[in-house]
Amino acid sequence: MKKFFSIYIYTTIITIALLALWFYITNFTGWLSPIIFPSPEIVVMAFFKALIELFQGFVSSMKLLIPSFVLALILGIGGGLFFGLHPKSRKILTPFFNAFSPLPLTLFIPYAIALLPTFELASIFILFLAAFWPIFLGTIQGVLLVDNHFWDNAKTIGLQQKDLILKVIIPASSPFILSGTGTALNLSFLILMTAEMFGAKSGMGYFIQFYTDFTQYDYVLAGLIFNSIVILLVMFTFEKIKKRILFWTNLKNEAN
């Protein structure tokens, strides 16, 4: 705890100040509508009343997010390695990558709903697209930026293709792969919440939309807080994993 507060002392102070400001404005001024902006104690009560429902929504959301993200990781890294190592194929298909990767995912939603039998499969497909492109393009970039001396050393010791990929290319390009993965994770949560708010019957985004429709903004804010905590924990865990994988870059930074 001492280490945590030494790192996040200013973050903690800002959080407490914002909570105090929220409490003051909602309880001692008439600046905001109490219906849309309920006081913190009311939101806390709603949070604990809806805790089971919130966790049920979390489980429902993860059933969409996890398979789509895992599939994006497998195909994104695998495809990125292939095209990064095969310049002819990359040159032929790069115009398609550049044309399709920036397209808004909302364009694909009606096609996904029309072609796939269930909302869950359509959501998984859209979430897959959201996560795939950052990972795929990040992996290609990582492979292309592998230092030449790594290639020279690999040729000198006669590494086979499998060992070359596992022991040289993936470790050397891992900063770019993990950077793309972090971007994909953030984007996946954004798309997940949006999709669940408009077509789902359960989930973290659905919880917010459901109570918005009934103007129960204490539950809406409770859902926003719960979603923020989930995303914060997921991203914090990812950063810890990323730091452990890229331990050699941390040592390099400390040396500098």
From TrEMBL:
This is ABC transporter permease. InterPro entries: MetI-like, MetI-like_sf. It is found in: Cell membrane. GO terms for biological process: transmembrane transport. The chain crosses the membrane at residues 7-25, 64-85, 176-199, 219-238. Keywords: Cell membrane, Membrane, Transmembrane, Transmembrane helix, Transport. Residues 58-238 form the ABC transmembrane type-1 domain. Its main location: membrane. The keyword Cell membrane applies. It is a multi-pass membrane protein. One of its GO terms (cellular component) is plasma membrane. Belongs to the binding-protein-dependent transport system permease family. Coiled coil: none annotated.
